[in-house]
């Protein structure tokens, strides 16, 4: 780079191409989504949700990495039953990703 040649990297970030559109505002736990809230970082665990300790460990790691909201898979009744313990101990809001069984929605609602 002694001759001042850029190697494919822009000197400045690209300009914003469009304004952020206005959307409805809602709260996911204590995290604001939409409207004027900043974009939230979301992720999903890769553990078996029924393994409460492993899931909480992964949520703690995601939180430390800057995650604001986390999703957990609920493909079985055991996973749905674990939601209450996970939601109670998680530092960030937990969203249940329900798979094919609408009855698990009720476990998610009861878990908070």
From TrEMBL:
Highest taxon of source: Bacteria
A Gene Ontology biological process term: isopentenyl diphosphate biosynthetic process, methylerythritol 4-phosphate pathway
GO molecular function, one term: 4-hydroxy-3-methylbut-2-en-1-yl diphosphate synthase activity (ferredoxin)
Record keyword 4Fe-4S present: yes
Alphabetical UniProt keywords: 4Fe-4S, Iron, Iron-sulfur, Metal-binding
Residue ranges annotated for the IspG TIM-barrel domain, each copy included: 23-112
UniProt cofactor(s): [4Fe-4S] cluster
Matches recorded under InterPro entries: Dihydropteroate_synth-like_sf, IspG_bac-typ, IspG_TIM
Listed name of the protein: 4-hydroxy-3-methylbut-2-en-1-yl diphosphate synthase
Source organism per UniProt: Lentzea tibetensis
